[in-house]
What does this fold into?
Amino acid sequence: MISTIYIEEEIANHPRTLAILKRFPDATKISCQRYGEIFNRKSQNFRLQKKQPALILAKKHKGLALPTPKQYAIGAEYNYYFSHMLNCLYDCRYCFLQGMFQSAHYILFVNYEDFTEEMTSILNQHNNEPVHFFSGYDCDSLALDPVTGFTSAFLPFFESNPQALLELRTKSTQIRSLLKREPIKNCVIAFSFTPDKIARTLEHKAPDINKRLQSILDLQEAGWQIGLRFDPLIYTKDFAIEYSELFKKIFSKINPQLTHSISLGAFRLPKDYFRKLEKLYPDDILFSSPLAEEDNNIGYPSEIRNDMLEFCTNIITQHIPAEKFFPCHETV
Amino acid sequence: MIHLFCALPCEAEPLIQHFKLSAIKEFDLFRIYQSKDKEISLTTTGIGKLNTAAAVCFQHACLKTSASDIWLNIGVAGHANLALGEARLVNKITDEHDNATWYPQIIFNSPCKSTHLITLDKPSTDYQDALYDMEASAFYQMAIRLGTAELIHCLKIISDNTAQNTATVNADKVKKMISAQVQTIEKLIDCLKPLSAEIHSITCKPAHYQHFIEEWHFTKSESIQLSRLLRQWALRLPDEDVMQLVTNNKSGKAVLKTLRSTINNSEFIIHD
It folds into this structure.
């Protein structure tokens, strides 16, 4: 899977680096000073690199946990996101990472201990108030878990800090490490969904929705709280039929008691990111969607967006109480 | 197109023969050779970074290169302990002069192993566990300004090592070493061709674009909109005749308006 590994000299002897290198004895190892020498170079093509991404092992020096925009909150006043990885195993055509990064290589920041130190400091700033930490903005939280050991490193921290909540956002079925241990109350495994046909068209390399749903059922059976993320909502002519089917499939099977939260938001991207994606995939149907530009963002025109949000809201709120529902009404 | 760069005529000669290249006579600052179908070119740069950077620019200006072109620096190099005649793709280039470093992107199954290369200002026999040459950093630095990083590579063949240093290298030996690795070079090109084709497919203009540009006047910004709308047309209305729709339009602006409104009024289905 990984044929090239770049290693920052500063973390070459970090125990996590050594453990990961052991898993890939045949990979070509290349040392570098800082990951930016590879990752941030211009003239790289994200689409080509996505065919065979390399792994970059690096150290995160600053910005280890950053405040989250208010509209993405799921019930707490204080919200932060953190990224132990940049880039994703999957290749979802709507993903903003393709517009944000020059490179499709996976960066793994191995200094987890600095992340938890930063989180401790944030928790101290907020005394004993609840603080939510979101993982999975810049990567899939679980897709590389067997390699990164992410959950087994971070869950004990959250277990001993009950005022903090961890959201692991994912489309992955890599849940073995979670099933092996006792669930903790302050961790939500949040799965993203689009209807089956849309997922097959746009979510390349991601597990199909039946497998994701099975992972949810397995996790709930083991006692974990799960979240549902219908973001981005994707428009198509039979949007209502396809999303109705998706909701029916999910809500007929999941346990609402162990459903922590549901959020939704329509597809939208910053204009610069959208234009870059459009250049990378000019023949992809997504970029021929009915779209409008507003305030330097590109997304569905308000009539389509509002119809979609209203339609989904009506169904979702039939299945869960309002306090668990977090629609993102970000304008385009 | 595939652009090959060699420092020395003896490095170039086996490739000129293998790819059946002929000299282009109108360019005399650097020798440029080209295949009959103009798909492969080769430039002899001369030794050193300055010559190499100048040759890459010259070749770009003479042959009008594009983002989908493949750029290869091929030549001999020294190494502490690799056997003479072995080929290595370069995965890291360090310029010894200022320690600047580049990382060629090997996103395919390489036909040979890859390793680190150090570009020197002067020849040296102080061998290390890295390739030594005098051109690659300049080649790479210049080529990534002109092309797509994943399509730009350096392939080196070991000409000298600790046991047999540069004093033992001569033109005949170099020709034989390069000839013996022509298949590796062919395989490398085969790995890069599909990537090049993919870049071509996303950078080329959509169907009918040229006809529209010749028929009506479009500003720069309008021509970008035209390109986008023609691609959308192909995806959303693949069975409709776009030429017939706009045939009576008097201006580029009117054409864009017609295309946009027809596309916007069509049903949007994201999957088959």
Observations:
- Chain B has nine helices and ten strands.
- Chain B touches chain A through 38 residues (CB under 8 Å).
- The radius of gyration of chain B is 24 Å.
